[in-house]
Amino acid sequence: MQNNKPQYKQNSKKNNQPRNKNFNTYNKPKPVQPLPKLPLIYADGMTVGDIAEVTKRSTADIIKSLMMLGIMANQTQSLDRDTAELLAGELKIEFKVDESKDFTNFEKIEYIDDPKDLVSRPPVVTIMGHVDHGKTTLLDTIRNSRVVLSEAGGITQAIGAYSVERNGKKITFIDTPGHAAFTEMRARGAKITDIVVLVVAADDGVMPQTKEAIDHAKASNCPIIVAINKIDKNNANPDRAKTELSELGLLPEEWGGTVPFVGISALKGTNVPLLLDTIQLVAEVEEYKANPSRDATGYVIESKLDKSKGPTATLLVKAGTLHVSDVVVVGNVWGKVRTMTNDLGKQVRQAFPSDAVSITGLSEVPQAGDQFLVFKDERQARSISETRTQRAKQESQAKTNVVSLDQLFKQSAEGEVPELNLMLKTDTSGSAEAMKGSLEKIDVNGAKLNVIRASVGPVTETDVLLAQASRAVIIAFNVIALANVKDFAKSKGVDIRSYNIIYKLLEDIEAAMKGMLAPVYEDKVCGQAEVRETFKVTKLGTIAGSYVTDGFVRRNCIVEVIREGIVIYTGKLSSLRRFKDDVKEVKQGFDCGIMVQNFNDIKVGDIMQFSITEEVKDEE
Fold first, then answer.
1. Rounded average pLDDT over 395-400
2. Would you call 443 helix, strand, or coil by DSSP?
3. Where a domain ends, among 487, 516, 545?
4. How far is residue 478 from each of residues 429, 449, 498, measured CA to CA in Å?
5. Are 425 and 478 members of one domain?
6. What's the pLDDT at 479?
7. What domain range includes position 51?
8. Cys-Cys link to 261, which of 169, 245, 252, 449 (CB 3.0-4.6 A)?
């Protein structure tokens, strides 16, 4: 029987060979690609993933390097600056900080917009003036609503922002309180405004709060329009109001000045359209523009904690466009815009430059006057908010917005322009004018004096608030500041100086202005000593047993070590002793032990010459 099973040949040596002669080449290790050496350019709020992208490395490499430093992190975790710098050292790459993106101080970032992106924006107008002169009634007439009826006592008690349309163009109005108790809120209103409308009653004329409003308006460097209200009253005297205002530096255009004056009746609506036309004319001359395409920025007008909505804030958009769901940092708090409502209470999806909207979604209630900025990344916004909060806690004790006579030289040493702002409070108007004229005659080269206000009466809390906003010192001449006002000024860091002799006041102010200038110092030789013995002490250095041959030696002296007539070292003393006691001074004829800071090559016979640094006084 025939065997049909296939016959298998035994594998020959040839068949044991691999088919591909280059088989072994597949098992060779691939060459290791060198890691990139791109620098780590750090910006606040960067995550592990961001750093991996910047350095062109894998996220796994970054996480592994962090683990080598004992830091556990994931891809979405933000790293602070110190950790990022340590990471750069571990990766052996250069570490840089992107100064242009230091968003922790976003108020100081200067945006340079392309002129092609700038478009006209509505002017932001602030209504200011004395209480009961008709500010809110004027706004009520402009926007055809009765806001004044819903306000306690007819006095505006919170800053409100309202938008109106005139001839197809919008105007944003900010109604600041006129009562003296709300001077600080009025100061915030002037800071964020483009144009100030000063309301003066024709039957009352210039009042104390009118003068304060003028001071704030001038401090804001904004164009001023005067609205003389209540011209329909029988006892109205618009010319008297014009005369009083011209004496305060607001000269009407019809009298050859530059300030537009409009006589109106807010209650009857007389000449209100003319006032709006004047506002738009000033706005056209000033050409207010903004870029609506970039990230929105602006200021907080008012904020509160709503029981149902949580933290709410009224924001005034200065540039860019604010959208619902935008991530914002407002002052030291952050959040995601959940809702936006306009001044009519209607919900809107976006706010353009010069729009005022109330938003919800913030983590906490911000402070009125805080600046806000929109961010793309929620993690970055949270990180910046935490950094700013921590910084605010550290600086809570520092009074950076006030000044005293004792602080002026310190500011000058830090490179600031020496400038002294004064507020005068006197017993009579004659004294105020005389003191103002005498003070303005003080001439100290390199220093500047400004009398921002001179008025009659005791120092009040309103004066303190204005001095705080203007970085001014209050001079009280023959008037008092009550204990509660002094305590209030102390809490605000405002300096109040009281005088009853005018020449003493002038001497102190002149001395203060001279103190603002950088003093001239010179080294004056005060003593000499001879080294008669040296002692070397482990871990301390060389002690020179010396005898004071002339003058005296003090611990704060500058010492020159002289050997054979040549100065071989100049430095400071690190120790001065008599026997075992540390002393401040040793006079001529006494022995002492001297150690020179960072210098131990002292030999017997060396001469030590001591000098002290003294300020050169100006000779009158």
1. 47
2. coil
3. 516
4. 12, 22, 8
5. yes
6. 81
7. 40-101
8. 252
